[in-house]
Amino acid sequence: MMEKELNKHFKHEHFPKVLKDAMLYSLEAGGKRLRPVLLAASYGAFQTGTDKILTSAVALEMIHTYSLIHDDLPAMDNDDYRRGKLTNHKAFNEAIAILAGDALLTYSFEIIANDPLLSSDEKVTILQMLSRASGPHGMVAGQIYDMEAEDKAISLEQLENIHALKTGELVGFAVKAGAFLGNASEEQLKHLEKFAYYLGILFQVQDDILDIEGDEEKLGKSVGSDIDQNKSTYPKLLGLNGAKKLKLEYANKAKESLKMAQANTDILMNLIDHFSQRDH
Amino acid sequence: MMEKELNKHFKHEHFPKVLKDAMLYSLEAGGKRLRPVLLAASYGAFQTGTDKILTSAVALEMIHTYSLIHDDLPAMDNDDYRRGKLTNHKAFNEAIAILAGDALLTYSFEIIANDPLLSSDEKVTILQMLSRASGPHGMVAGQIYDMEAEDKAISLEQLENIHALKTGELVGFAVKAGAFLGNASEEQLKHLEKFAYYLGILFQVQDDILDIEGDEEKLGKSVGSDIDQNKSTYPKLLGLNGAKKLKLEYANKAKESLKMAQANTDILMNLIDHFSQRDH
């Protein structure tokens, strides 16, 4: 579903060839599409069908992808591989990678502003939520704090704040956008926001655990890189067992909040376990 | 006016300190604010006051500034100075510069989506125009074609296409957004689009001329860099006199289109000469 939807936004567009190739290279690099799935599941808690959220889901995946392309750059994490494939700047070059990221970010706003299935009021709300979640109030702030924490001893609270911004904001957007477009009540939105918060952190805790216990082949990247880079992680601050305990605790809190929302949350409920037990 | 407006969008925002500093460093680097001025003048052709266009003008300047920060990066033009000041990645570092650019781009959409003086329909139209002008259909495409043209002999038509995208799209946005918010008619918008096209190219022709004849102190950068970098320019393709002739021709075409719009275009008319005769 997502692949077809993604391609729809590139088929008839006259982008420079190398730019289109670079954008699609990373979009099609076999990500897990967790954010679009989450957005669809959140909408599905209130409505049937998926038409109404497809463009927002694609835009969200574009923003996630741009952030990975820029994160991988030599001046940032300097990664050569992601998901078992060469990173964008290795497959193309640095200048193209910077521009492909810029283009994906900009295009994500363009496709929402032109979504034929949303009213102007809906577009504006989605654009407000997405820009806030991904910009200097959200994901980019997380990226800065993450860089500042390198080679430093930070507290659990600081670590959680980094992840709440760097990963949690887009996870939160997925859940809130789905619920908003599904006409959830204010009350329901409040509970889903809490659910999204715990889910986002839980996702990151599992990421840190996989960097210790994961299977390199399944992950498509080498494990142990956090330790090599002397990064602050949950296992480092809490021990491996402590991290696993925290993950369970957050999974339970997420489930609790989800129940309070009183909607058709079966799929979202399953996603908590899926996020918590994923092996890649 | 612009300085106060710009600062308004940073005063009470909780961005990470270094990110805010880096964003403001380049925003306040003493640019000519030509795009905001143009937007205001275009609005002024139809309405009095400027309140309604201030946020769009700030957003436009943010996008222009992000594009300069990313252009200056080592992987792109590798410039150490701009407007007589260190470029963003030299004053901070490469990672911060990449993120400051990303943040400015994203924040520009956020402030428009939250502009209290625009209706949802107006916000959506402005966001459609701005994202299209600055993304893979517009400015980023121009950047790619510009890179591809390096060290190559290109035709006058190709050169014009590069500038129409790289510079012209944002100039076009300034004019169209101002006229749209000023309630110009379809007919008037059509003439103003033509005006903006000639103005954008004219601006670039003068840029190329200044790289040969300009005063380094006034420009805040060294002249002759186009020749050093073996760049395709108007003077290179047409000779210096040919470039000056073309500039005059485009200035006349711009004036012609402006007259056809039949609005209070005195300031816009003056801007044609200002763009064409500027010394920095």
CATH class of chain A: Mainly Alpha
Please state roughly what percent of the residues of chain A sit in beta strands, choosing from under 5%, 5-15%, 15-25%, 25-35%, 35-45% or over 45%.
under 5%
Into which percent range does the helicity of residues of chain A fall? over 70%
Give the averaged pLDDT of chain A, no decimals.
94
| Alpha carbon gyration radius of chain A | 18 Å
For the record, the CATH architecture of chain A stands as: Orthogonal Bundle
What is the subunit arrangement here? homodimer
The helix-and-strand class of chain A reads: mainly alpha
H/E element sequence of chain A: HHHHEEHHHHHHHHHH
Number of beta strands of chain A? 2
Major β-sheet of chain A, in short? 2 strands, antiparallel
Which pair of chains forms the biggest interface, and how many residues does each contribute?
Answer: A-B, 49 and 49 residues
Question: Treating each run of at least 4 consecutive H or I residues as one helix, how many helices of chain A?
Answer: 14
**Which superfamily, in CATH terms, is the homologous superfamily of chain A?**
Farnesyl Diphosphate Synthase
Overall spatial form of chain A? globular
Give the strand order of the largest sheet of chain A, numbering strands 1, 2, ... along the chain: 1-2
Number of domains of chain A: 1
Distance between the termini of chain A: 21 Å
